[in-house]
Give the backbone structure.
Amino acid sequence: QLQAFGGGLVQAGDSLRLSCAGSGRTFSSYAIGWFRQVPGKERKFVASVSWSGANTYYADSVKGRFAISRDNAKNTVYLQMNSLKPEDTAVYYCALRNSDYVPFGSWGQGTLVTVSS
């Protein structure tokens, strides 16, 4: 089970770090992805990290501003968000998968990020 936390209200240009905490001994076996959703719109991919942390992927809209990392000893994945923009406002979710050939699942509860202009 995953739980995302760390959201809050910040101003444009600020930074925020989200955490995705997992339980179970197999957490380190899964790739973890961050997604975000604005009410009334579909959930969109933000970033993902492979099980080892060696490979990371980003949506074009966040590339160069966000950084995903993981600490498998702590069963936690982080999303460092810098230079935040109002359009980054959304509920952020994390999810996992054990293969590139299956969709992300086991969605945790989201955490709200609000960026004011």
